[in-house]
């Protein structure tokens, strides 16, 4: 695994140097240094799960055949396109959420010389993706499908982000609209498509598959993405900030989190009142009251039950798939996220 990651990071260096020598723009020293620093700060800093899983998935689809250097490079390049997409979303997301830290360091826009220049940096990150695809996939029979795939998933993610933002509008704090179906819609569009479906779809295209014939795979991965986000919501409140690399703010931010949705289902009238009075307030004492209520109604136990049920349901769906290679891809995804702590 460490070897794979080292190889993957080498590909990042190649892609970065190509972008810094893009013939479509004449770089001067200052712009070169800016983009160089901006990329290093925002693109390779995470766990790289999405990117690495393109290579993993492609390997499994090739059923143990030794990959050529070119195949490893191309699968890595697609993996990095997903990491670039992620960086673009996160840079802008952090501005919208007024976040302070990301991946254990200050958010990019919080750096003294960056500020709102980060908006344009987000746009640049987004524009790097078609440049990478053009450089390495233009001659491939699946080039147009790749462009379509990235465009569609970006549209779905931005639309999910929109539902999330307009639901948490300040001044309109109404917990009654927070339901499991709304939570599911947000999660499906905002997270599941780009984090779960996109890496596997990239691998399927590289393996010469037609995505139209793999709608069932998309369904399973979107389910998995939903489960992943519920874990994220859980860790935001109950996880260790040291381990997850950020301080959770879902309660303060009035987020449509799975925890608050479940709490609203379970609470009696008195408890609901405590939620309504304290949820979405920045004061630590309000947050503490919400957390105390979560403990009181045993949300940890409710989550543990949800986790085991989801795992069973997903395993059953995966085992129903006719292709053993596709099953292996889906099982490897599930294995990585089941009972994760970060």
TrEMBL record:
PROSITE patterns: POLYPRENYL_SYNTHASE_1, POLYPRENYL_SYNTHASE_2. SUPFAM superfamilies: Terpenoid synthases. GO terms for biological process: cholesterol biosynthetic process; farnesyl diphosphate biosynthetic process. The keyword Metal-binding applies. One of its GO terms (molecular function) is dimethylallyltranstransferase activity. Signal peptide: none annotated. Its cofactor is Mg(2+). The keyword Magnesium applies. Pfam families: polyprenyl_synt. Keywords: Cholesterol biosynthesis, Cholesterol metabolism, Isoprene biosynthesis, Lipid biosynthesis, Lipid metabolism, Magnesium, Metal-binding, Steroid biosynthesis, Steroid metabolism, Sterol biosynthesis, Sterol metabolism, Transferase. GO terms for cellular component: cytoplasm. PANTHER family: FARNESYL PYROPHOSPHATE SYNTHASE (PTHR11525:SF0), FARNESYL-PYROPHOSPHATE SYNTHETASE (PTHR11525). This is Farnesyl pyrophosphate synthase 1. It comes from Rhodamnia argentea.
């Amino acid at each position: 695994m460490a070897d794979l990651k080292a190889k993957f990071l080498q590909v990042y260096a190649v892609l970065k140097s190509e972008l810094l020598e893009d013939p479509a723009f004449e770089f001067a020293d200052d712009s070169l240094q800016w983009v160089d620093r901006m990329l290093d700060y925002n693109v390779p800093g995470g766990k790289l799960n999405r990117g690495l899983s393109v290579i993993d998935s492609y390997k499994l689809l090739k059923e143990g055949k030794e990959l050529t250097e070119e195949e490893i490079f191309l699968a890595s390049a697609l993996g990095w396109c997903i990491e670039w997409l992620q960086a673009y979303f996160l840079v802008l997301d952090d501005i919208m959420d007024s976040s302070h830290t990301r991946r254990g360091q200050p958010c990019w826009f919080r750096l003294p010389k960056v500020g709102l220049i980060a908006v344009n940096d987000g746009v640049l990150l987004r524009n790097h993706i078609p440049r990478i695809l053009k450089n390495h996939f233009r001659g491939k029979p699946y080039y147009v499908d790749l462009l379509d795939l990235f465009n569609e998933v970006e549209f779905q993610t931005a639309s999910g982000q929109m539902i999330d933002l307009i639901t948490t509008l300040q001044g309109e704090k109404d917990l009654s609209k927070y339901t499991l179906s709304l939570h599911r819609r947000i999660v499906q569009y905002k997270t599941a498509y780009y984090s779960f479906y996109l890496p596997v779809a990239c691998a399927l295209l590289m393996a010469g598959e037609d995505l139209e014939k793999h709608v069932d795979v998309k369904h399973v991965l979107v389910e998995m993405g939903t489960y992943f986000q519920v874990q994220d919501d859980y860790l935001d409140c109950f996880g260790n900030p040291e381990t997850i690399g950020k301080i959770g703010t879902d309660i303060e931010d009035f987020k449509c989190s799975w925890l608050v949705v479940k709490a609203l289902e379970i609470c009696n009238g008195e408890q609901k009142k405590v939620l309504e009075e304290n949820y979405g307030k920045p004061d630590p004492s309000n947050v503490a009251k919400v957390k105390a209520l979560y403990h009181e109604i045993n949300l940890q136990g409710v989550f543990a039950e949800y986790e085991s049920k989801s795992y069973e349901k997903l395993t059953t769906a995966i085992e129903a798939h006719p292709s053993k290679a596709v099953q292996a891809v889906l099982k490897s995804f599930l294995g990585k996220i089941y009972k994760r702590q970060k």
